[in-house]
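Here comes a specimen:
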Amino acid sequence: MPAGSPNFGERRNGARPDLIVIHYTAMASCAAARDRLCDPAAEVSAHYLISEAGAVEALVPEEARAWHAGAGAWGAVTDVNSRSIGIELANPGDAPFPEPQMAALERLLAEVMARWEIPPERVIGHSDMAPGRKSDPGPRFDWRRLALQGLSVWPDAVWPDAVGPDAVGSDEVRPEASGGPESLAAFAPLAQGFGYPAVGDALVLLAFRLRFRPWAGGPADAADTALAGDLARRFPVDAGRAGA
């Protein structure tokens, strides 16, 4: 299928994709999102767009640099567009992701990861690489579902609420998990060890929770530190990889 968007260029410095970034479109319809992603004046694009019904549309060749990520970083990677494949999910930003769409995403992820030898820890959200600037794919996206299939990662369930309030009947953090400035100071370097950029500890906490603890609130606590520490230990960012 020929590419549907003119908004792309060459990957810089001979880079090849070793990240996948998942987005939501935040538009009223898939058709409206496609029009914007293919509009030269908009200067935005993604490699793939997946409709609510699960139709996958290739808009930019995987070998090319699509314009989906913008400013941000993941570990040593600061030009995320040159090092990533961007996948847009048609979703207004506050709605569940339908089963056909999730199933199509899973199939596509498996293919892209195999094609470019991308490990599951390098499948991230737009909010992960741009804390405070972006919130997609948002709190309703099921990251744990992907992780169970080896298509992303999830922290070990060190804390009862690590798999979500529905799984344990409560979204309350255990009393010993109360936190404050000291907990935030302990949490931040661990989150950065997993890949989050150094853009301010509070913003990184919000981005981390958006993905792994969207029901949690208040200051950083021992649960955040334990989960970030587990991810940093098992999936240290940039281990054996080239720089930005």
Remarks:
- The first helix runs from residue 30 to 37.
